[in-house]
Amino acid sequence: MGIVLKQSFRNTFITYLGFGIGAINILFLYTNFLTDEYFGLVGVLLSTATILMPLMAFGVPNTLVKYFSSFIDTKDKDGFLTLMLLLPLAIIIPCTLLTYIGFEMIGDFLSKKNTIVKGYVWYIFLIGLAMAYFEVFYAWSKVQMKSVFGNFMKEVFARICVTVLLCLVYFKIISVDVFLMALVCVYLLRTIIMKLYAYTLKFPKLNFTFPKNTSEIIKYSAFIILGASASVIVLEIDRFMINQYIAIENVAYYSVAIFIATVIVVPSRAMHQITYPLTAELMNKKDGIGLKELYQKSSLTLFIVSGLLFVLIILNLSDLYTLVPQAYRGGFFVVFLIGLAKVYDALLGNNNSILYNSDHYKTVLFLGVFLAISTIVLNLWLIPQYGLNGAAMATFFAIVIFNTTKLFYVQKKFKAQPFTWETMQVLGLLLLIGIPIYFLQLPFHALINIALKSIVVVLLFVGALYRFRISKDIIGALEKIFKF
Prior knowledge:
Elements: H1 2-33, H2 36-57, H3 60-68, H4 74-86, H5 89-101, H6 103-110, H7 121-142, H8 148-170, H9 176-201, H10 214-245, H11 249-262, H12 266-284, H13 288-321, H14 332-347, H15 351-356, H16 361-414, H17 421-438, H18 446-468, H19 472-482
């Protein structure tokens, strides 16, 4: 876990920096510098583009990571990388033609409830395209075991640009329309920079003699489209469907609540940048013992961090909401449900990496498609009845069902599960510390209340972890940081 922890800590710092900037943008700048309607529009554009991204990427990011380490010969690697660059075009070119031909029809569909969305179809397409190739070049760097710069570009770069653009809107240097056009340019520029960096690590030598197992690779990529799309749909379809059924301002209110809950996934996102290629390498080597160890260690480490974050968020949520405009304060139920689902995600460690790099990926992908459909159906049922809370319930149920199924599937096929006795110890600590402090009401300013509660919880939790030696990786990291 040495290389995992080293790059994971760097990625965690970068990702938290990005989320810190994102917090300023979401909680303060968007909510005060744009109207609710335009903030909701930004949420719809980005969520819809994110849903398109796996399709446009043609599964290449996952395929690149899975197969790259299996090629030894340089010519085979060059042929494989050439194939990875070209595959997305098989989807992107037809999508471009369909968008051009069906512009009016697509616009009418997206704007049947909120007419403001209709004029932004090409914005969605271009952002989705940029996201797709960004992930391709990011995967290109990850297989070289270099994930930090890509993580910076993914988590920090775009958010800094948005901060600048929102300030320009506030000072009336640019209009909201120019802001939206510039937002598209930011995502395109991010992809170009990522491409240049990836090429400094491994410059492509175009070789149209593709690997002998090309048909297998393309088949895998096609199946991965289903799995990646299913995962994205489960996470992003709620905002898209809120736009289809209720006023677009609600997307803005929901986005604030979702962002708060999404802070929980930062450690997972950071660690997965490096555990994914490591998992692929262990599976290519058929190292079952190493795989099981990585599975359990990643699960425990992520549960410790994500569980602590969940407790901190729930304890401080009422104080945090006093800092944002009144219209955005009704999301406690959304934050609780989505946050709980994110903790469950983290608890599964590198479960996804194991499944997508195994020979059983087809079953899991079809299952993912079924659950994505279930998510859509749940949203169709619950959003009209319960509004934003209904969207949160639909996402929560879908994630819990999907994760539980994957948990049992890995147990059955690989005879491995992520839980250890230490998992139960961490759960007990979180409950023992969190429940009493939840009922503690402090009379100070919201920021002081948040700081005091957070310091107390972190000191108690980290102190207990160290006292009872619950996680060797976490304790080792703490001893290195504080020179114990």
